[in-house]
Design brief:
- By secondary structure, the protein is α+β, with helices and mostly antiparallel strands.
- It folds into 2 domains: 93 residues; 131 residues, no CATH class.
- Helix content is 28%, strand content 20%.
- A 4-stranded antiparallel sheet has the order 2-1-5-9, with helices on one face. A 4-stranded antiparallel sheet has the order 6-8-7-12. A two-stranded antiparallel sheet has the order 3-4.
- A hairpin with a 4-residue loop joins strand 10 and strand 11.
Length: 294
């Protein structure tokens, strides 16, 4: 099994034909106007309408226009089909179309219509508490493993030389800063975190999502007693990192402004579908989109 980057044509075909079939499977809190923002990243920066403004390779768009008090006024996306159209043709369907900082129309450029390398939604939400998500990345697991494998590594060793010396860069998938065993270990860690949520926090609703190069673990209880404010999230980070020694990214858990990969979007760097999974035995080959496997 090898991984590669998706082409522009594959990205367009996936979001035009395959992704719409998964919309009905999205978690109930991911609606057209529930998350406070949707965001896209582009492989090639795309111009905005204003002259001399920098090109954009990442954009965030609010799901609502707000009034002076920050309250919802007008929805930018009426249905999820509007979100789909934004994903497929971001410049043509930019919610900031009225603004000079909207994406420039490809019809007046030599540069083609941008295609999203990644699709995200905001963890901050209009209709429920800030969504609690723990991020576990295979890259971090690989770095820790490399540091342990290379016993003579000094303080001047860079992450790249550590990965090279340990053989990780040359392991499948070749050229990536981790090996498949690190991806599989991230998945195992994800289910360990889910068990901690269930057993230590009495969580009733959890979800593990394969993110392409690791996992996202959600705690989705909406009980007002478990709103998990910033202080609570810092305590959770300390618990997972120090007590259970699980290599999470603590910034993701604690930062209200974070975005997460949209379930069933395509991780273009590895050509894999981001998706909820039910077992630590999950085989990443099953996440191959039809546009690739075909």
């Amino acid at each position: 099994m090898t991984w590669r980057q998706a082409t522009r044509e594959e990205l367009y075909t996936y979001y035009a034909e395959e992704f719409p079939r998964y919309v009905d499977r999205l978690p109930e809190f991911i609606t057209a106007d529930g998350p406070k923002e949707y965001a896209l990243s582009f492989r090639d920066p795309h111009p905005v309408r204003t002259e001399n403004a920098p090109d954009k390779n990442f954009i965030r768009r609010g799901t609502w226009q707000t009034d002076a008090s920050g309250n919802r006024a007008t929805a930018e996306f009426s249905t999820f089909e509007d979100v789909l159209e934004f994903i497929r043709h971001p410049a043509r369907n930019d919610p900031l179309g009225w603004s000079p900082f909207a994406l420039a129309d490809p019809a007046v450029l030599e540069q083609p219509d941008p295609r999203p390398d990644a699709v995200y939604y905001a963890l901050d939400h209009w209709d429920r508490p800030w969504i609690l998500l723990v991020d576990i990345d295979a890259k971090e697991i690989a770095r820790e493993r490399a540091a342990g494998d290379v016993s003579e590594a000094g303080d001047n060793q860079t992450k790249g030389t550590l990965l090279e010396a340990s053989g990780i860069i040359d392991s499948a998938p070749t050229g990536y800063p981790y090996a498949f065993e690190d991806v599989n270990r991230a998945i195992e860690y994800g289910f360990e975190v889910r068990d901690i949520f269930t057993e230590d926090f009495n969580a009733e609703e959890t979800m593990v999502v394969y993110s392409g190069q690791g996992v996202h673990v959600y705690l989705l209880d909406t009980d007002p007693a478990h709103r998990y404010d910033e202080q609570s999230r810092e305590v959770l980070n300390d618990l997972l990192l120090e007590t259970y020694d699980i290599p999470i990214d603590p910034v993701v858990t604690a930062d209200r402004r974070r975005v997460a990969r949209l379930p069933y979007s395509l991780h273009a760097d590895v050509c894999r579908i981001v998706q909820p999974i039910e077992s630590p035995e999950f085989d990443v080959r099953s996440a191959t989109p039809e546009v690739i496997s075909g």
